[in-house]
Amino acid sequence: MTDEELRRKVMKEKGTEPPFSGEYIDNKAKGIYKCAECGRELFLSDAKFDSGCGWPSFDRPVADDAVEKKLDTSHFMIRTEVLCPDCGGHLGHVFGDGPTGTGLRYCINSIALEFEGSE
Questions:
Q1: pLDDT tens for residues 58-89?
Q2: What is residue 20's predicted lDDT score, i.e. its pLDDT?
Q3: Cβ-based neighbour number of residue 79 at 10 Å
Q4: I need a labelling partner for 28 at 20 to 30 A (CA). Which of 55, 64, 111, 119 fits?
Q5: Which residues of the chain fall short of a pLDDT of 50?
Q6: Are 29 and 115 in contact (CB under 8 A)?
């Protein structure tokens, strides 16, 4: 599967990339993560942490309105889906088990992100 096919499957069909396979799972560079579809700014690198879940994890978006959240009851689970508010692309899910003061873990597919370094 090409990157373009995987991006379409994840962002438009609400799929997920295989765990520990994404480009940004181990990225430690400073910068900003943007929506791969439309370029909207989503997460700063200082919000990223290693959760061990297999996908890039963040404890907060760049701004309160930077992402949209929606109830997801697919696959016999109750989760909160994270979407880009500009293009509607599926980014991943957010969980209430984060280790920082926010208590949140935004578990985001690398293929749904583009990274712009600041150094």
A1: 999 999 999 999 999 988 989 999 999 999 99
A2: 96
A3: 16
A4: 64
A5: none
A6: yes
Tokens of 112: 């749904």
Asked whether the beta carbons of 68 and 55 are under 8 A apart, the reply is no
Average pLDDT of the chain to the nearest whole number: 95
Instruction: With beta carbons less than 8 A apart as the criterion, state whether 59 and 47 touch.
Output: yes
Handedness of CA 53, 15, 42, 30 (dihedral sign): positive
Burial 28-39 (b: 16+ CB within 10 A, else e): eeeebbbbbbee
The model's pTM is 0.94
Catalytic residue (one of 35, 84, 87, 107): 107
**Can you tell me the distance from the alpha carbon of 45 to that of 21, in angstroms, rounded to the nearest whole number?**
19
**Under a CB-based contact definition with an 8 Å cutoff, are residues 69 and 61 in contact?**
no
Catalogue all structural domains in the chain, each as residue range(s) with its CATH number.
Answer: 3-17+29-117 (2.170.150.20)
Q: Dig out the tokens for 87 from the structure.
A: 């293009």
